[in-house]
Every structure is written in C-alpha cells, then in structure tokens.
Amino acid sequence: MRSFTWRGKRFGGVPRDHWRRVNEALDPETDFVEIYRNAVVHEFPWDMNQALSFALFRTYAVPGIGRLLAETGAFTEQVQRRYDDTALLLEQPSLKGFEHPDARAAIRRVNQMHRAYDIPDHEFRYVLSTFVVVPQRWLADYGKRPLSATELSASVNYYRTLGRHMAIPDVPETFDGFARLMDDYEAAHFGPDEGGRAVADSTLALMLTFQPSFAARGVELFSRALMDPPLREALGYAAPARPVERASRAALRARGRLLRRFPARLSAQTVADLPWVRSYPDGYDIEQLGTFPTPGVAGCPVRHAPGPAAPAPGG
C-alpha cells in the first residue's frame, strides 16, 4: 500500500503491523522510552489518550486525592488549562527521553507542584500504578490489539523510571505488582467525597466540550457506561441501563476491530496535535505550565519559619 497524507499526517507505505514489528526488535530493558513512545504517538494515540485520561479520573475516587484537587481549585476552576498542562508535562519524557532538558524541566515542574502539599507516598504509588494498568486493560478490551509482552515490559520500565525521577519509594517491579497495587488500593480506599465528586463533575463537563453540543448528553451517558461499578459507586454516579452499557462497550470493541484494517500511522500524534488541547494556540513554555501554589492558600500548607531556639538549661 502506498503512503498518503490525511489531515497533515502520513499513513501507510509499510505493513499494518509496522510498529509492532519495530517494537519487537527493540529491548524493553534499554529501549523502553522508544517502545513506549511508538505505542503512544504512532500505534495507539487515541486509545492511550483515553486510557490515561480515565486513569487520572479513577484517582478522583480516592478521597484524599479528590479532596486535595478540589481544595486547590485547579481541576474545578481552571479545568481546561490544568487538563492541558497535565498532558503536556507528562508527555515530555516519552517524546524526548528522561535526560532531555525539556523532560527534566517538565518533571521538575511536576515535583515542584507536588512538594507544596503533604501528599503521602502511597498516593503517589497508586497514581503511578494507574498509568501502567489502565492502558493495558483498555487496549486488551477495546484496542485493535493488546500490548505485546515487550510493550508491556517497556511501559513498566518507563513508569518505574518516572517514579524514580519523582522520588517515589517502593515502586513495583512488574506489571502484576502494579496491578495488585492498583486493585488492592482501590478496594481499600475508594469512597465518596464531595471534593472528589466536584473534580469528577468538572472533568466530565470539560470532556463534553470536546464534542458538538448536540452530542453532549450521549457523551455523558457513554462516559458513565465505561466506568466500572466500584468507580461509579465511589463517585456517586448512577449506572446507565444495562443495554446502554453493553452497546457502549460493544461500539468501542467494534472500533478496535475496524482499526486492524487501517494503515500504520507514520506521523506522530502528540498532545499538542489534539483539538481538545486548547490553552496554548501560540505555543507554551514548559517552565510556566502547571500551578504555582501559595502557602496557606487553596489547600497549600503554610510553611512556618523556624521559631526561636529554646534557651539553654540554666540560661
């Protein structure tokens, strides 16, 4: 099949399974960034974006996480910009490698934001686990194919490296370890919280703007149909009718089967290419992405200056 260009992106000219072949020729222990990048921007760009969005959405059902996000106002008052900033910052290491200046700047910004709050290590580990587990399960259920063993190993190594750069301790070493962590954590910690529900509502409202207004009701129903019962229960969302849930999931599976007939994507599909990332039409400065918390404001702990030294005995 000859290559062609559609909407500024090149397709075809190589076998349909081109990116799987490329990834299988690489070593997931040393080439994990390249393998992960190929999966995200070439082989599964839409699926990975949806899966990672759902991964973040799951974290709102943990009261400690949802409540803090609500207190900051970042995902309720400026949800479009925070959505865009999160995607742009997290993308940098996969596009350019962890040692690239842009990737280092992005991770530094993420760490600066997180250090402003008293976030326990177990919450960091849980969030990291969703980035590994949710995409694997999404692609197994709805993708044109599941991740190969090589690609899954690369994903594990990629997020273990991200965890190391974020100084997260006790990160699992295998996919099974990440899956157990995520499942056990959700069973123990999922629960209702007004803050988590507010952040979830704001995020769903944003997602509705990604589609024409006449489709909003259908998109909202479709989103709830894709949530598993524990997630819906924790966030307080009503379950759609069973036929709606079955039809929604069947539609995604049909899309995956159809994509098996599509040519390989040669041009990368990055976050900046997505039409729903709208905050920076003229470009962005990585150092200015994200929030700059002020101590004592919007959930940011007050940093107390050291008090006077205690007098010496007998002084």
UniProtKB/TrEMBL annotation:
Record has Oxidoreductase as a keyword: yes
EC number: 1.-.-.-
Keywords annotated in UniProt: Oxidoreductase
Cited InterPro entries: MPAB, MPAB/Lcp_cat_dom
Domain ER-bound oxygenase mpaB/mpaB'/Rubber oxygenase catalytic: 60-255
Molecular function (Gene Ontology), one example: oxidoreductase activity
Protein name per its UniProtKB record: Oxygenase MpaB family protein
Species of origin: Nocardioides cremeus
